[in-house]
Design goal:
This protein is α/β, with parallel strands linked by helices and 401 residues long. The protein contains 10 helices and 18 strands. Strands 1, 2, 8, 9, 10, 11, 17 and 18 form an 8-stranded mixed beta sheet that branches. It has an 8-stranded mixed beta sheet with strand order 5-6-4-13-14-15-12-16, with helices on both faces. Helix 1 runs parallel beside helix 6 and helix 2 packs across helix 9. InterPro entries: FAD-dep_OxRdtase (IPR006076), FAD/NAD-bd_sf (IPR036188).
């Protein structure tokens, strides 16, 4: 480890490793990169504990385009990230996403979102109740007024595979990784200068990238800055199904999608099992080390909704559960990617609120462009920059799960 690096990235999970990969892959950047990760096992990283999905069904064009680039990266991942003959397979399942609307308000949101998605070239269709029933005959659809289904470009994949692929390729391209914890960030006027580590090392930094996930606010405060990001707990359950409906669909070779019920409960196939979760009724900030699952959510919220939606989900049994953390942006539940307007060599890549895995490729590319060119070159992410935090102006996105 050197005493000075052109770029120091705080956090080495999927966001930090995507930044490191895109920077070191950029032919117009020839600087040094250090990634600092406090837990190289990544056991409690949001990346490792996520539901691992990617979708284009958003209401804002930026979020649609961010996921479209993510889909391209996932498609070509094995070839692009190959290191010494090792071609990482993300095991992508193109199951699609299925949103169900039961109220007029929900249906109107799906229609408005669909217009945005179509304008971006997304392969998404709206279905009537009858069309939904024909596609997925296991569902009870009496209350459904409209459905939105992604025919391609959506699905789920190996979450840690994405992170480790970025990490391995970044290291092969010259990025250095160190296991340590940032305990201080010094400033001289309007510039961060030095990152102090728990080991006692002091690293001079040309640019600091905050990719600390749920701990983003903690890292920002070390530099005398603020970001409204806090850890929020989400519990995922894996269940077995006495009579699995997987294979019963009349579309997509019988594969079932990730279904977002009108109640907010979601469910998707997970091998021979199913993965499910729901938005919590109460959603307070939690301690950074609180990973105790909310066991009662399955019995009280999830199972009743699933059993109502399909007779196949009446006889189900939990076989596993775990809790992970959203890096939750309390302003608007959307990512913050960009420079601090005054401390301009401090860059935020935070607040993904559950979408970090699918948004990591475009975030890494965008941050690399900010550093190499002092501006975005491919997709303009200015609307999700830090300025809206200062102004208190939310970035509107209606399709938040």
């Amino acid at each position: 480890m050197n005493e000075r690096y052109d770029v120091v990235i705080v956090g080495g999970a999927v966001i930090g490793s995507s930044v490191a990969y895109h920077l070191t892959a950029n032919p117009d950047f020839n600087g040094s990169v250090l990634v600092i990760e406090r837990d190289p096992s990544y056991a409690r990283a949001s990346t490792a504990l996520s539901a691992s999905g990617i979708r284009v069904q958003y209401s804002n064009p930026i979020n649609v385009q961010v996921s479209q680039y993510g889909g391209e990266v996932i498609r070509d991942f094995a070839e692009t990230m190959a290191v010494d003959g090792d071609r990482p397979d993300l095991n992508f399942h193109p199951g699609g996403y299925l949103f169900l609307a039961s109220s007029p308000e929900q249906a109107q949101i799906l229609r408005e979102n669909h217009e945005v998605q179509k304008s971006c070239g997304a392969d998404v269709v709206l279905w009537s109740r009858d069309e939904l029933a024909a596609a997925f005959p296991h569902l009870r659809v009496g209350d459904v007024s409209l459905a939105s289904y992604g025919r391609s470009g959506e699905g789920w994949f190996n979450n840690t595979g994405l992170m480790q692929g970025f990490r391995a390729r970044a290291r092969a391209q010259g990025a250095q990784y160190v296991t340590d914890e940032v305990v201080g960030i010094a400033r001289h006027g309007s510039a961060v200068t030095t990152v102090t580590l728990k080991s006692g090392a002091a690293i001079q930094a040309g640019t600091v990238v905050n990719a600390a996930g749920p701990r983003a606010a903690q890292v920002a405060r070390m530099a005398g800055l603020d970001i409204p990001v806090e850890p929020r707990k989400r519990t995922l359950f894996v269940f077995d199904c006495a009579e699995s409906p997987e294979g019963s669909a009349s579309v997509n070779q019988g594969r079932l999608p990730l279904m977002i019920d009108s109640t907010g409960v979601f469910c998707r196939p997970e091998g021979r099992f199913f993965l499910t979760g729901c938005p919590p009724v109460e959603d307070p900030a939690v301690d950074w080390d609180d990973f105790e699952p909310r066991y009662d959510e399955f019995e009280e919220l999830i199972w009743p909704a699933l059993a109502e939606r399909s007779p196949h989900f009446e006889a189900i049994k939990v076989v596993n559960q775990w809790a992970g953390h959203y890096a939750f942006n309390t302003l608007d539940h959307n990512m913050v990617v960009g420079r601090h307007p005054e401390v301009t060599n401090f860059i935020f890549a935070n607040g993904f609120s559950g979408h970090g895995l699918q948004q990591a490729p475009a975030t890494g590319r965008g941050v690399s462009e900010l550093i190499a060119y002092d501006g975005f070159r491919t997709l303009d992410l200015s609307a999700v920059g830090y300025e809206r935090i200062v102004n208190g102006t939310p970035f509107l996105e209606k399709a938040v799960i």
